[in-house]
Amino acid sequence: MADYFVGSKEYFPGIGKIKYEGPKSDNPLAYKYYDAEKIVGGKKMKDHLRFAIAYWHSFCADGADPFGAATHPHPWIADAKNPIEASEHKLDAAFEFITKLGAEFYCFHDRDVAPEGANPAESEKNLQAWTARAKERQQATGVKLLWGTANLFTHPRFMNGAATNPEFGIVALAAAQVKAAIDATIALGGQGYTFWGGREGYMSLLNTDLKKEKDHLAQFLTLARDYARKQGFKGVFYIEPKPCEPTKHQYDYDSETVIGFLRNYGLEKDFRLNIEANHAELAGHDFAHELETAAASGFFGSVDANRGDYINGWDTDQFPSSYYEAALAMLAIHKAGGFTTGGLNFDAKIRRNSIDPSDLFEAHIGGMDTFAVGLTVAQRIIQDGKIQKFINDRYASFDSGDGAQFAKGELSLEALAKLGSDYGSFGFTSGKQEYLENVLNQYLLDL
Ligand code: XLS
Ligand code: CA
Ligand code: CA
Question: Is residue 194 part of a domain?
């Protein structure tokens, strides 16, 4: 296998394979902490972290925002004669970038990779042509597909939703897209298939039948699940929670909401959660809260690794840079049993004014180093066991005697109340939050 892939043209000339050089290196194009083959907690770093590159941000987003035009004129689009050629060049640029970085996975939406045609059949043909080329690239490089998805939010036809659209015809058009995207995902050996319901929600209850829309969403997901399974898909379906944006209120608000929805509609066996850090913040939660909530009910699946900005409350999709948050996230992921089909997908974009070709590399290098530090710190917390012991001791009264009987469901409310009356007074124990925060900081600084 070549060190890295170059197609008909090298799109990132002057940048070679990114290597691990260690924390003392001042080379901006080297890993300081991410050492792919290093064994941490009995497993290679790369197998713990399973990094994926998001096609849409890295190779499609052009820096445009609601107030200004594009600032990233991608050469792989600029040098193409038509949209099909642009799709081919983009694929070359993507595989060059991914292999230079040494990431193992990528994720895509159907419309990131192949242009929409004049009708669903033509769109499907474009996607199939891209899929055949992508398959060759995967075989040549060993890069794998973490998950695929369909873009059911950009086209004006989805302004009132996709699976939850009040017009049946649009629901059917969405199905044509999802069916083709599932086929592409299966053909590429995708380990997952994601549903992010950006427009599955509402702007006003005055024009919305909320119950009907939720029923339709569940019906749509059921059909997609059944189709994919019939085609032999063995991977996991993910729902990606987000509370709002672009809708005022999204049905997949947060982890707990989605878990309830999946159980309500009998989808709990096939669907897991893809948790995005920025979406957790928008829902008013910590990233780690969303991860632990999913894990507690057995719904942890995959992660969109990014961050928002604490001050402005938008979905800014910035690259992760906080060691502190990454450590808490990796601890939560460890508690969830680690990744199986999922991974850390950088659903993050460089800033509008980050216009050097090296910025895309530096952004990902920083994100990967951040999670390598997070993993290292989480391992230290786990091995040392001090924090877990504190938690265990805190709940020790449920390990034996009456407390254990209660936890096992062996006490009636009368029996419990009797115990309460007999107990009389209790000791008060400190939660010791400040002490525990100090312990965490010690692990963080001891790099
Ligand atoms: C948007 C979402 C989206 C999903 C995939 O906010 O993060 O990019 O990850 O459709
Ligand atoms: Ca996302
Ligand atoms: Ca986002």
Answer: yes
What's the pLDDT score for residue 1?
A: 46
404 and 322 part of one domain: no
Q: Is the pTM of this model over 0.85?
A: yes
pLDDT digits (tens, 9 = 90+) for 361-395: 999 999 999 999 999 999 999 999 999 999 999 99
**Of 384, 407, 423, which residue constitutes the final position of a domain?**
384
Domain check: are 361 and 427 in the same one? no
Helix (H, G, I), strand (E, B) or coil at 118: coil
317 lines ligand 1 (CB under 6 A): no
Q: Residue 218 belongs to what H/E stretch? A: helix 210-230
User: Are residues 378 and 423 both part of a single domain?
Assistant: no
Q: Which atom of ligand 1 is nearest to the CA of 315?
A: 6
**Is 247's C-beta closer than 6 angstroms to any atom of ligand 1?**
no
Closest of 291, 444, 305, 292 to residue 377, by C-alpha: 444
Residue 110 structural domain: 19-384
Is residue 447 pLDDT above 80, yes or no?
no
Q: Is residue 7 part of a domain?
A: no
Residue 181 to residue 112: CA distance in whole angstroms: 11
CA atoms of 407 and 396, how far apart (whole Å): 12
Task: Find out whether the beta carbon of 202 lies less than 6 Å from any atom of ligand 1.
Answer: no
pLDDT tens digit sequence for 327-344: 999 999 999 999 999 999
Report the number of distinct structural domains present in the chain.
Answer: 2
> Do residues 307 and 440 share a domain?
no
